[in-house]
Amino acid sequence: MRYISTRGGMDPVRFREAVIIGQAPDGGLLMPEFLPDVSSDLEGWRGLAFEDLAFEVVRLFADDIDDVVLKKILKDAFETFASEDTIPLVQLDGLNVLELFHGPTLAFKDVALQVLGGLFEHILGRQSGSLNILGATSGDTGSAAIAAVRGRPNIDIFVLFPDGRTSLMQELQMTTVLDDNVHCLGIEGTFDDCQELMKSIFNDLAFKEKYRLGAVNSVNWARVVVQVVYYIYAALKFKEPVSFSVPTGNFGNVFAGYLARSMGVPIDRLVLATNKNDILARFFETGTYALGTVQHTLSPSMDIQVASNFERFLYLYFNGDSERLVEFLETFYERGSAKVDHVDSVEPLFLATSVGEEETVETIKSTYASHGYVLDPHSAVGVAAASRFKLTSPLISLATAHPAKFPDAVNEAIGKDVATHAKLKKLVSHATRKTVLAADELAVKNYLTENAR
After folding, report:
1. Which CATH architecture has domain 89-103+221-421?
2. What pLDDT digit, counting tens, does each position of 160-207 carry?
3. Catalytic residue among 71, 72, 75, 109, which?
4. Could you write out the three-class secondary structure of the chain?
5. 210 is annotated as an active-site residue
């Protein structure tokens, strides 16, 4: 399996190199030259444990990694999860919830990032090299990435996050990690500012090469392919096609579902659920991708306007035509909006909608009242969005974070202290470390120059 850039400006590379490169040298994102058809494998995969299914799926994309090595990387990754099922499917009188938050940082990002950390260590070990990971986070990616690489030899990690715009628990999960190879950078701005800084620095190819910068965000293909696994795992729990409701901000999670469907997995519809930051919902409703102002919400990990993984979808939508993709992106960045030609045929697989704050709170409250089940605000956005559509297939809502990561919003909605977790309670008393920087590329580069391995 080889990987190419969505923008067409690089020679194909194998999986190992794709993992280390992260973002393509031409500014694009890496995609496999083709997607394997797994439809004939599904029945044989039914009933596999999550770890075993992950091996069967990931090996299709990582055929330059020895099977024994890949199995160990996956085993080590999923041993960090607190649930025996890794990602249990909870059935609540018609409401099916796929709990993706049982990893070290209690967020769905752990599923892929624990694997990515192992991949980094293995690949760098073979190369006798080092890597400086640069990432941007709206809340959960940062802590999950830090948990994946903290203390690992030959890896330093630099995480940009919008200072004061994550939940307290999300920040503490990053800033209480005091390992020497961990650098938490609070940026005076929004997540979009953080993401734009990261992209701009990666596009400085001389700087990227000099400091051996690697990506841990969902721009890294390895992140996406591991997320494909849980769509297959959940779909195989049913004997008929299923639908998923996916709270999304950066489009990586729901894009993994789109890929699973494209590979032959029986997925009926994907409900794309955004909060008030609704650029993606508006695109699938109107065909126009138009920049708005980032709004601070109860679901901060989705407080995003420019969704980095959306470029991968557009590449497939334009049938691999990199020139059309680049033209669309240039128009968007120049004018703040860009439009596709045929709105009705954008992608009927998606049902997109935006959920406001009041409905998020009410969904947390009503779900607890009806089922005794506690949703975090992001997962509540997914449940609320799904309720707007009449679906004929079984619906699976993705629970992307443990409610204890957002205790103020959850406890206020329910009216009592239910959003707790022993691991998070301890963080409040721990020492913290972070560096606050202006949303300025030179400021971040200077920090990297002084601190990179």
Report:
1. 3-Layer(aba) Sandwich (3.40)
2. 999 999 989 999 999 999 999 999 999 999 989 999 999 999 989 999
3. 109
4. CCEEECCCCCCCECHHHHHHHCECCCCCEEEECCCCCCCCCHHHHCCCCHHHHHHHHHHHHCCCCCHHHHHHHHHHHHCCCCCCCCCCEEEECCEEEEECCCCCCCECHHHHHHHHHHHHHHHHHHHCCCEEEEEECCCHHHHHHHHHHCCCCCEEEEEEEECCCCCHHHHHHHHCCCCCCEEEEEEECCHHHHHHHHHHHHHCHHHHHHCCEEECCCCCHHHHHHHHHHHHHHHCCCCCCEEEEEECCCCHHHHHHHHHHHCCCCEEEEEEEECCCCHHHHHHHHCEEECCCCCCCCCHHHCCCCCCCHHHHHHHHCCCCHHHHHHHHHHHHHHCEEECCCHHHCCCCEEEEECCHHHHHHHHHHHHHHHCCCCCHHHHHHHHHHCCCCCCCCEEEEECECHHHCHHHHHHHHCCCCCCCHHHHHHHHCCCCCEEEECCHHHHHHHHHHHCC
5. no
